[in-house]
Amino acid sequence: MSGAAEAIWQNANLATMAGGATYGAVPDGALAVRGGRIAWVGARAALPEGLIGAETVVHDAGGGWITPALIDCHTHLVFAGNRAEEFEGRLCGDTYEGAARRGGGIVSTVMKTRAADEAALLASARGRLARLVAEGVRTVEIKSGYGLSIESELKMLRVARALGRESGVRVRTSFLGAHAVPPEFAGRSDDYVDLIVEEMLPAVAAEGLADAVDAFAETIAFSNAQIRRIFEAAAALGLPVKLHADQLTDGDGAAFAASVGALSADHLEYTSAAGAQAMGAAGTVAVLLPGAYATVGARQPPPVAAFRAHGVGMAVATDCNPGSSPMCSLLMAMNLACALFRLTPEEALAGVTRQAARALGLAGEVGTLEVGKAAEFAVWDVGHPRELAYWMGGVGPRVVLG
Ligand code: NIG
Ligand code: FE
């Protein structure tokens, strides 16, 4: 610690999410910011005098709660069109897999996304991002995967990067070329995997457009053997991996993700106890996506008890996408994670802060209120942080910093 802080926040309760007490709570706390970093955090009574100088701006948080800024660690925010018709179809007896097999599903969004130019994609994603930001989100993961050709995948990732630049939100991109088999490769999925490994991934990496590589392991998508090839290519390029795993069937995706040291395995409704154990041993984060669970009409929730038993960190995200989760509210995802998966409100808040940071490989940078981390936090007019998961939307933060 050296010199006065630029800003101090006090008359606040802190939910540091950094361990210790429940919510890492510090009642009547104070938080000091210097150079965009948290310089000091603790009980106000213990605030070192030297932190307050002539230039220090002292903010009154009005007795509310300060949490780390929220992190949406799994989105498909960039896409064209919507799939309300498919949603309606499911309510009239169709299934998510059925629509996909008939050329609807992901591929129908691919057609629209291929036809859209960067400006149109940027404009529609901008609105969705604004809704997340209004809820205190300062870090968002955005996947490609609705292009499925070199040019269209690059286009999606460029739009994701542009969104980060123009908004100031920290955007982490994931290359999801293995999201679906594009129609021109129907019946030739191995050839498409060749294209991903030999051409798409190198092109994406050459432009520095991906922070991670993702894939959809599922009977209607790619096998673990195919994805292993993609992940080996990712590792050779120094890119971490994540996996859409066990969403619709138990494909041993969780254990597979753990075996390759994936940052996260996501969805996980059909994950077995053995899969949860493997994730715990590997430190792979379970990203729970209750919006997708609810929207596709799933019946089996992810094995939360097994995740707890095996020490698997659980993140919560919107999965914002036009097919399985047309949701742009991370607070709603927290509420649904509690209501549908029985997470506690504290687990849900950890899921959009500390655990979400881990799922993105950003644990050293964001996700808790700790000295040295980025000064990105939200001030909420709530009486207790459990209210963030309790209200079904509608509780925006008063201020978001960072
Ligand atoms: O995370 N599971 C695969 N991918 C997305 C759905 C994409 C879509 O239906 O357009 C998901 O749920
Ligand atoms: Fe997804």
Topology:
Layout: E1 7-15, E2 25-34, E3 37-43, E4 57-60, E5 65-68, E6 70-72, H1 84-91, H2 96-101, H3 105-115, H4 118-133, E7 137-143, H5 150-167, E8 170-178, H6 189-206, E9 212-215, H7 224-236, E10 242-245, H8 253-259, E11 264-267, H9 273-282, E12 285-288, H10 290-295, H11 304-309, E13 314-316, H12 330-341, H13 345-351, H14 354-359, E14 377-380, H15 387-390, E15 399-401
Determine the strand fraction and express it as a percent band: 15-25%
Shape: globular
Count of alpha/pi helices: 15
Uncertain residue segments: none
Structural category is alpha/beta
How many strand elements?
A: 15
Order of helix and strand elements from N to C terminus: EEEEEEHHHHEHEHEHEHEHEHHEHHHEHE
Provide the helix percentage: 25-40%
Q: Major sheet, described briefly?
A: 7 strands, mixed
Alpha carbon gap, first and last residue:
20 Å
Kindly report the average pLDDT value: 96
Radius of gyration: 21 Å
Bound molecules: N-(iminomethyl)-L-glutamic acid, fe (iii) ion
